[in-house]
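[Protein data]
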Amino acid sequence: MPPTVNIAENEVINLDQVDRDILEILQKDGRSSASFIADEIGMSVPAVADRIKKLQESGVIKGFTTLLNHRKVGLDVSAFITVISESSSHYSDVVRETNNSPEILQCFTTTGNGSHVLLALVENTHSLERLLRKIQSWPGVMRTETQIILSSYKGINAVLIP
């Protein structure tokens, strides 16, 4: 494993099969213990713990989180919001404002009609309307286009590791 100092965000880390096996288990259940993983892949607990630590330090593992059923916590409306900006000089404004908006789960810089596509999650259509007015007041935003998500059949819970 390369040293952890100054690892670039986009640097590709070479993973061996053991790393891949550990990551596959952790993507299925991020609460899997080093002991469980060690039993699954036939390694010692300290060796697995060391591998996990190195995967974290290298940035391969960005963190551990809990997946929520958003409807069970009162967030019933999700939407893709395409942001059309006046010019690319406002891209950093959009990103800054996005980072200050907890209703926006993801922000993508894109090609095509808009400069950014946002994934938002809110309580109801009234909350969505309020969020859209907020976004439309951001510096450089000309307009937005919104697609309300009716159903979701596949989420991003795991990444296929090449």
Summary: The chain has two domains: 1-66, 70-149. The first strand starts at residue 77 and ends at 85. Confidence is low (pLDDT under 50) at residues 1-6.
